[in-house]
Amino acid sequence: MQILITGILLGGVYAIVAMGLSLQYGVARIMNLASGEMLVAGAFAAFWVVMAHSFSPYVALLWVVPGAFVFNWLIYRYLLLPLVRRAKSRGQLEVDSILVTFGLSFALVGIFLMVFGGSFFNYSYLSRPVEFMGSRYGLNRVVAFWIAVAICAALWYWIHYTRSGMAIRAVSVDPVSAGLVAIDVPRMSTFAFALGGAVAASGGVLLSTFLTFDASVGIVFTMKALIIVIMGGVGDMRGAIVAALVLGMTETVVARLVDPGLTLASAYLLFVLVLLFRPQGLFGRSTT
């Protein structure tokens, strides 16, 4: 039971990281390999708030979210939109965007190393245990989990019960048909990409409260987000949440019962199994 609950706590935070990439890939058709660097930027912002001002790290959300939104909007508008306009097929767009965002990832890592150095960073926040069902869990993990749940619930409601969310879903299903019913597809794609970056950065703030991080750890979370998105089904938020919980529990089981050094290997093994036996994702339908 302790392993199960710990896995759920971790998977809940993974879910918010994956939902950012799901918005970018599912709607804007951009496989953003620099998504993890947005997470690292959010983590460094939270670290600075705690160490320099002794505030709660969640105060950093007040400027991390809008700042990441604007930064990702500029990336899409001036770096990726020209690729979208010149791409003759979705396959070409995916290849071009992977190459560009891969280079952007290295550039951001270089900036982080120049500013913060190559050391590992962490801080103590709500680092006290809380007891539940006879076991103890870190209060920082519990708080991060419930904030992640709140953000995911707000995104879910917006996507499914608002007019703009309906437009986002329409672009995700078929951008050509969406344009035929007066939806501004470039505008919606730009908004989805910017929102995805902001969500990923907020996930970095949450993760920084209980994980040690450095300037180059972003690639690890990019790959985990990619695993979750593929496992859950591209563009399917329900699948992303379930896949995040599965990944969190898998890593926890391996860390507790086998070897903590094999958690990343277990994630990749899970990814390979999904590609082999369920390539359409947990809730996707097989192509006909």
Automatic annotation (TrEMBL):
The lineage of its organism: Bacteria, Pseudomonadati, Pseudomonadota, Gammaproteobacteria, Oceanospirillales. Belongs to the binding-protein-dependent transport system permease family. LivHM subfamily. GO terms for molecular function: transmembrane transporter activity. Pfam families: BPD_transp_2. This is Branched-chain amino acid ABC transporter permease. It is found in: Cell inner membrane. The keyword Transport applies. Signal peptide: none annotated. GO terms for cellular component: plasma membrane. It comes from the Bacteria. Keywords: Amino-acid transport, Cell membrane, Membrane, Transmembrane, Transmembrane helix, Transport. One of its GO terms (biological process) is amino acid transport. The chain crosses the membrane at residues 6-23, 30-51, 57-76, 97-121, 141-159, 191-213, 225-249, 261-277. It is a multi-pass membrane protein.
